[in-house]
UniProtKB/TrEMBL annotation:
Subunit structure: UreD, UreF and UreG form a complex that acts as a GTP-hydrolysis-dependent molecular chaperone, activating the urease apoprotein by helping to assemble the nickel containing metallocenter of UreC. The UreE protein probably delivers the nickel.
Single GO term (MF): nickel cation binding
Keywords annotated in UniProt: Chaperone, Cytoplasm, Nickel insertion
InterPro entries listed in its UniProt record: UreF (IPR002639), UreF_sf (IPR038277)
GO cellular component, one term: cytoplasm
Protein name (database record): Urease accessory protein UreF
Family: Belongs to the UreF family.
Keyword set includes Plastid: no
Subcellular location: Cytoplasm
Amino acid sequence: MITHLLGPMIMHTNHQANKADDLALLGLMQLISPALPIGAFAWSQGLESALELGWVRNEQELGQWLEGVLDDGLSRCELPILARLQSCWAKGDSKGLAYWNEYLHANRETAELTDEDTRLGLALMRLLTSLAIAPKTSDGLPSSPGYVTVFAWAAHKRQIPVRQSILGFAWAWLENQLSVACKAMPLGHTAAQILTEQLRPKLVLAVDSALALPDNEIGPIMPGLALGSALHETQYSRLFRS
């Protein structure tokens, strides 16, 4: 009799949990969608310069470039900091938020990369304000929040698990970089999907690495990308912002 009564209660609890998981997943899909109106498509993050300078000349070299940026950049900087920022939002740790927001800002090696982070952060803040879910000072919002900081808030607000939020962030980065390549070099959409298939397991490994990285090892090691980003400002012809 007791088991018979508990059955509907357990089913109801499971349904509520599944519903919350579904809403979190949809919230993540919304955040990483190319249709999100924040202007991420306008930036190449050094890739356009790499193409112009002949560092990346074909599909194979593009895959190597992206894997290098993922291993020496995202997994060592944006992803571990995103995880820490989301944890700080959850705990209401305003000092931690200010620290990691500034730390990430200090790791932007060129004016172009700094401008991108600032502008995307402002754009995402405007969007979240329109959706009535923007963070406030009382939530611990640091001054001049960058894109990763605001993304971490949105992931926290949508109750997205940290691992999924940083995996989604990495996926959005990969999609954007392949979109850049499709516009700036002879790369078809099928070739882009082949690269996506090749790099998909690398995203999972990057997340594992990011979550295991201690604080004192956080920081990108990408002198080539930094140089390309700096040279992009004076590139003769550009499709993407500088």
